[in-house]
Task: structure prediction
Amino acid sequence: MASSTTTTSSSSSSLKIEEVKTARSQRVAAHSHIKGLGLNPEGGSIEVAAGLVGQRKAREASGVITELIKAKKMAGRALLLAGPPGTGKTALALGIAQELGTKVPFCPMVGSEVYSSEVKKTEILMENFRRAIGLRIKETKEVYEGEVTELTPEETENQLGGYGKTIAHVVIGLKTTKGSKQLKLDASIYESLQKEKISVGDVIYIESNSGSVKRVGRSDAYATEHDLEAEEYVPLPKGDVHKKREIIQDVTLHDLDLANAKPQGGHDIMSMMGQMMKPKKTEITEKLRVEINKVVNKYIDQGIAELVPGVLFVDEVHMLDIECFTYLNRALESTLAPIVIFATNRGHCTVRGTDIVSPHGIPMDLLDRLSIIKTSTYSQQEMLQILAIRAGVEGWNIEEDALAFLSGIGLRS
Result:
C-alpha cells in the first residue's frame, strides 16, 4: 500500500523541462575588441570607444580617409600608417575596415607573403589587388515561386532495357496568394528537388533559365504541426507563380579570375589523371585578366554591374623589394585599383634589393604618392585602459594594482 502512494505522488509532481542553451565560444584574436574607429558624428575621436584608446589624431585622420573611400574618391591612392611597434597601426586598419562595413572587400596581407617558391612576387601582389576589388552584379531572373501543393514523378520504361524504370519528368504544383500553377519539369530538376529534400508544403523557387531549385522554408500554414526539428516557417509568396526577380551577387575580381582559369576537365584519361594529381598553385595569365576586365567594363557600361573598390592592407611594407615597389606604382595607376593601406614600424632603412636608404624602406617615387598617418607611443594610463579592455574580452578578472604593474612593464619595454 505504501509503495502505491509513492508512485502516485511522484507522477502528480510537475514535469520540469528546461531548455539547454549552448554557449558558442568565440575565438579571441589579438584585435577581436576592435569594432570601429570610435568617432563621433562630427568626425572627432572619443578617448575610449569601439575598442580603441588614444591615438586621437590618427583616428580622426583615418575617419577622413574612410569618408573618402565611401565617396569613391580614393581609388588608386595609397595610405601609409607609420609609427613605432605596438602603437595600433593594424588596429587602425581594422577599424577602417569595420567602418566601411561588410559589403566592402578588405584583404589583409603581410609584406613577406610575396616570397613564394611557386609563384612570382608580382603575381601574389596582383592576386591580392584583385581580391580587394568587388563587383556587385544585378541580374533579373525569371523564377517560379510558391508553396508546393503536388509533387508527382512520372516514370517511363528504361530505354536501355532491364527491369528498372526511369523518371521521365516530374509534375509539380505551386501556389501563391494570387493563384496556382502546375509545372512539368525535367528529370534532372527532380534530382535537385531530392537533394534539397523538398516535400509538399515547402516554399521553393525554381530559376527558369538554369533550372536550379532553392528551398526558402516551410509554409506557415503548417506552423501548427508538432515538428521536433527546428523548421523555418515562411509566409505564402505574394504575386504570380511566374515572376521576374532581381538577384544581387557580390564577387571579387579574383573569384572571376579563378573561375575562368580552372580548366573544365573532360572525361578522357589525361583529364582524370590531372584532377587526381595534387594541384599546384597556378599563375593566372595577364591575357586572361585583360579579357575579364573587358567583360567587367562592358557590364559596368550596361549598368548590370557596379564596381566596389575595397581595401588592400599590406603590413610590414618594408619587407617588399624594389621589384614589388615598381609593380605597385603601375598597379596603383590601373583603372581597376583598390585603396591600398601600408603599415611599417621602420624609420630610415635600405630599400630591399638596392643600396638606397629611404624613409620607411619605401622608394621616394612611391612615397610621394602616399598620405601618411603617424601613430605615437601610448602613455601608461592609455596602456592600462587597453589592458582592461583586453582582460574583459579574454574574460579575465584582473585587479587594479596588477593592471598598473603590467602597464608599467609595457611603458618600460
